[in-house]
Amino acid sequence: MNLSKGYLLTLIVVMAYLSWQLVTPFLQYVLGAVLIAFVLYPLQRRLERRLSPTLAAFALVVLAVVAFIIPFVLVIGLFAEDAMQMLQNADAESLRLADLEAAIESQTGQSVDIASTVTDSAQQIGTAVLERSTAWFSAFTHALIGLGLALFLVYYLLKDGDDLMAWLHDMTPLPAEVQDDLYGELSEVMWAVLAGHVLIAIIQGFIAGLGLFATGIPNAAFWTFVMIILALIPLIGAFLVWGPAVGYLLLTGEPVLAVALAAYSAVIVGISDDYLRPIVVDRYAKLNPAVIILGVLGGVYAFGVMGLFFGPVILGAFLTTVDVIDDNYDRLEGESGTTET
After folding, report:
1. Are residues 194 and 303 in the same domain?
2. Residue 149 gets which letter from DSSP?
3. Would you state the pLDDT for residue 14?
4. Residue 59 · residue 51 · CB < 8 Å
5. What is the domain range of residue 57?
6. What is the Cα–Cα distance from 8 to 11, expressed in whole angstroms?
């Protein structure tokens, strides 16, 4: 390696590191933009048959705002209002706190005052919120900037998506047909994981929510929404809600309903995961459920919330890349670049 090449490689490494430092503060929003652009890209290609790329991309960004952001904010607002109303209208008798306290005392032998404990905790939380108001304002400002950045990225990823793919083809030192095979397999994995992952979470959360409604769990609509989000974590997600709900029914003197909810959730919700996930994800993405779980949990630690989606995709992409290399390794010997063969 001569001095010029060494200098250029060093410069690339330094610039890559500095670029990563610029991206890191908004990594969640960048990943979200990539995800949304990937989902909308087929629509972009269709709209470009009738509109210019600029108008098509702008229309899809507006669609993304209307179809994703506004309903999400409205749903959060409605459930937050519902939760606040529940807290404001709650009293010791309606929540059966006396029964809960008696049950806890009979089981543990210790007397507890749930109402005063909750009141003290609320006061402490209120004080902590006031003390951290500056930090909350900073986080809110960061979120607004991140959302604006995400929308700009979605627009340009859609508008210049073809140019980006052409650049990737030019920069990747693989024959064109191998690249087509690789990118096609990666696209199939991503669609299978994303579509299957989200669809299964919605179905599981809805099915589990029916059990909450049937057994009279307070604020069942709110907890159904929470279960849909948590169901993105395979196998254990929905249990984080219906498990405590079973405990609530036991403590409030409803053992029959508790057993019914436990049986319904364990069997019906479990069956929906066992049958739907192999059909939607395992068959088309060709990923073992253990890989999905590892990708979800590891993705959350590595990338935050967006890791729920990108964790399984990254592991699936790795396995797919290995398969493509294995299928084409012999023919790659002596070939380089993107020249057609």
Report:
1. yes
2. H
3. 92
4. yes
5. 25-171
6. 5
Is residue 323 located within the same domain as residue 290? Answer: yes
**Considering the domain boundaries, does residue 138 fall inside one?**
yes
For residues 188 and 217, state if they share a domain: yes
Say which amino acid occupies 185. Answer: E
In the block, which residue shows the tokens 């919700």? 269
**Per-residue pLDDT tens for 120-179?**
565 666 666 566 667 677 777 888 888 888 888 999 988 888 888 888 888 877 777 777
Q: CA 335 to CA 328: how far, in whole Å?
A: 11
CA pair distance 316, 182, nearest whole angstrom: 12
Contacts of residue 41, defined as CB under 8 A and 6 or more positions apart, other chains included, come to 157, 158, 161
User: Does 91 reside within a domain?
Assistant: yes
pLDDT tier at 93 (50, 70, 90 boundaries)?
A: very low
Phi, psi of 289 (to 5 degrees): -55, -35
| 318 and 239 belong to one structural domain | yes
Q: Has residue 208 been placed in a domain?
A: yes
CB half-sphere exposure, 16, CA atoms < 13 A: 6
pLDDT tens sequence across 311-324: 888 887 888 788 77
